[in-house]
C-alpha cells in the first residue's frame, strides 16, 4: 500500500495511478503472449515525487515481459525507465519498446545483440545510461535529444555513431568504448566534437587507449567548458596527456589513473608550452596507481613547476618498495612550486 497523504499535488496521485494502471496493462499483455521466439525483458519502472518534508518518495515496480515484434506498448506517462534484457535481442524490439515511452526523461538500458539495426533513442531524454554488447559489429546509435544533460555509454564492438546531435546541453559524459579497431579513430573524434560543451568528462581505459594509444592529431574541438576530467590511462605517457590537456583550456580538476605498469614507446612529440589550464585554472590533480616510472615523475615535476594556481596534488596507490618510494617522495617534495598554495600529498 502506497501512502499518498503527504504528496503535494492532486495530479501526482493521478500520475501514480496512471503509472500503476499501465504497469497492470503491460503485465496482463505479457501474460497473454506465449512464444518460443519472444524476448524476455525486465523493466523497472520508477517514479519520484517531492513530499512536504522535502524528501523524495519513489515508486518502483519490476515487470518481466515476453516481447514479440508484434507487441504494442503504450506508456506515455513514464519519466524514468530501467531496462535489462536477458539474452540476445533484436533491435526492432528495443525500438518498439522505446517508441511506446514517448516522454521518457531518464533511461537506463542494457542489452546484448548481434543485430546491425540502428537504435533510436527518445528525443525527450535528460539522462541516458546505455550498455550494449555484441559478438560482431555493434549497432549504431541515433541520439537527437536537445535536453540531454547526462550521458553514460558502454559499448563493446563499437564501430560508429549514426547520428548524435543537439548534445550541447550535456554537462557530464562517461565514455567506455571497446572498438572494432583501435586504428580508425574518426568515430570517437566525431563523438567528442558533439560533446565539446560538457563540463565533466570521464574517459575509461579502452576509450583512452583508442584516443591516445598512437601519436595522432587530436582533431576535435577544444573542450572550452570542461572543468573536470577523469581519465584512466592504459599506460602513462606524459606527452600524450599534455596534448589532451591543451584541448581543455579551463580545466580545474584532473583525476588520473594508470592502468598498466610499463608504457610502450609511443613517440608523442613533446609539447612546446604548458597547457593553458595548467597555467591559469587547474587547482586539483590526483594521480592513482603511481608506479614511479621516470615519465610519471617528470610529469609531476612539470605540473608543480608550471601550475600557477595549483592547490592540491595527490599521489595515491603508490606500488613501490619502501626505499624507492621514500626516494621519489623526497625528490618530488623538493621540487620548486609555482604556486605557494600547492600542497603535495602522498596516500
Automatic annotation (TrEMBL):
Residues 276-347 form the FBD domain. Transmembrane segments: none annotated. It comes from the Eukaryota. InterPro entries: FBD, FBL13/AtMIF1-like, LRR_dom_sf. It holds the Pfam family FBD. This is F-box/RNI/FBD-like domain protein. It comes from Medicago truncatula (Barrel medic).
